[in-house]
Design brief:
By secondary structure, the chain is an alpha+beta fold. The chain has five helices and seven strands; from the N terminus they run βαααβββαβαββ. About 30% of the residues lie in helices and about 35% in strands. The radius of gyration is 15 Å and the shape is globular.
Length: about 160
């Protein structure tokens, strides 16, 4: 049995969330700047523009927002472009809950999988995603980053 974190809701981001999204990205990804040699892509996102072309969901509870995910629907899958949790909330199972949320969305749209990538220097993610049911599909150098792609096949529920 999987124990999910304390109750929190996942809601669509609004324009008023942009400063939180920027702060959350900075705080969540800052730890990787030295290892990668530059800011990870989510730290330089233009969240205002992303709201117009991607789905951004905010994670919040009674204390306020503490994380987000950026995703979009592909031809046969959901692509999770970024997920960030404030450092004080990391390790609570929020990523698992976010992936479960995307699985429900994928099933409702009859999509076959969830796909994502991470930087090869984000070594914790290289073990986290397989633990969440993803398998590695590719390693490439893109936009100056060494990325590791993952895919999770969505099981059809009867």
């Amino acid at each position: 049995m999987t124990i999910l974190p304390a109750c929190f809701r996942i809601r669509p981001a609004i324009r008023g969330d942009i400063s939180f999204l920027e702060r959350c990205a900075h705080e969540a990804y800052e730890q990787y700047v030295k290892a990668i040699g530059r800011k990870p892509a989510p730290m330089v996102f233009d969240f205002k523009a992303r709201l117009d072309r991607s789905n951004i969901d905010v994670f919040e509870d009674e204390t306020g927002p503490f994380g987000y995910m950026v995703w979009k629907t592909g031809r046969d899958h959901i692509f999770l472009e970024s997920i960030a949790i404030l450092p004080g909330r990391q390790g609570e199972g929020c990523a698992r809950r976010a992936i479960s949320h995307l699985e429900v969305l994928a099933r409702s749209e009859e999509l076959a999988a969830i796909e994502l990538y991470t930087n090869e220097k984000m070594t914790g993610n290289l073990t986290l995603y397989p633990h969440l049911g993803f398998h590695e599909t590719n390693r490439v150098r893109e936009d100056g980053f060494n990325r590791v792609y993952f895919r999770k096949v969505i099981e059809v529920q009867n």
